[in-house]
Specification:
- This protein has 211 residues and is α+β, with helices and mostly antiparallel strands.
- The chain is built from seven helices and seven strands.
- A hairpin with a 6-residue loop joins strand 6 (184-189) and strand 7 (196-203).
- Helix 2 packs across helix 4 and helix 5 packs antiparallel against helix 7 (170-180).
């Protein structure tokens, strides 16, 4: 992945850059699948634990936007990053939280229309914590399927059609991670008439170190 990123930055031929982006996207997908399966194994075996430290959500969002950049370029998606605070410090497990943010960003990009996709990322101070939401203009979710979105292995009918190779564990694991931080995940219908809004809220206070 590192070599592909380096080649992509130096390459000037548009067709070759596109091929490099597709390769990088494939590698990222494999990494996500392996990571999801490892985390799922830890959850089912009772070994899933969080290790909180002081982290900055602003830096985390920016870093994960860089990690999905090959996919964004491949899909030609427009990403709108709403004005962020200078810092948003919380106590959280950085590795696991980054996986959640990456999952939300990846889903938003992949389930939005290629070349016409638009993803909006918002970070707000809400109550005694912070809320991160990712809104897309993609396939959306049928009302009858909303209640099952965070269930293990569940995939909506539209999602299975658009991306048959999905595992159906990303949102389930996101829920586990956020709830282990005493937070909440959510899904909202887009107020713009198309697409979905997925996100989570986390308290500023340090979570209890539980599985």
């Amino acid at each position: 992945r590192g070599f592909l990123d380096l080649l992509s930055q130096k390459e000037r031929n548009e067709k070759k850059v596109e091929m490099l982006n597709w390769s990088a996207t494939g590698i990222e997908r494999i990494i996500r699948i392996v990571t999801d399966m490892l985390n799922l194994s830890r959850v089912t075996s009772g070994e899933f634990k969080i290790s909180p430290s002081k982290v900055d959500l602003v830096s985390m969002i920016k870093n994960e936007l860089l990690s999905v950049e090959p996919l964004r370029r491949t899909r030609k998606t427009k990403i709108i990053l709403n004005p962020l605070p200078r810092k948003a410090l919380i106590q959280a497990d950085e590795v696991k939280l980054r996986e959640v943010i990456a999952n939300l960003l990846t889903n938003a990009i992949e389930y939005s229309p290629a070349q016409k996709g638009k993803v909006e990322v918002i970070l707000l101070s809400v109550g005694e914590g912070y809320e991160i939401s990712v809104q897309d203009n993609g396939i959306g979710v049928d009302q009858s399927e909303e209640a099952n979105l965070f269930r293990k292995y569940y995939r909506t009918t539209k999602a299975a059609e658009v991306r048959p190779a999905g595992t159906g564990v990303g949102l389930f694991l996101a829920k586990k991670v956020i709830e282990a931080h005493s937070g909440k995940v959510f899904y909202r219908r887009s107020t713009k008439g198309q697409g979905s809004v997925f996100g989570f809220w986390l308290p500023v206070a340090e979570p209890s170190k539980k599985s």
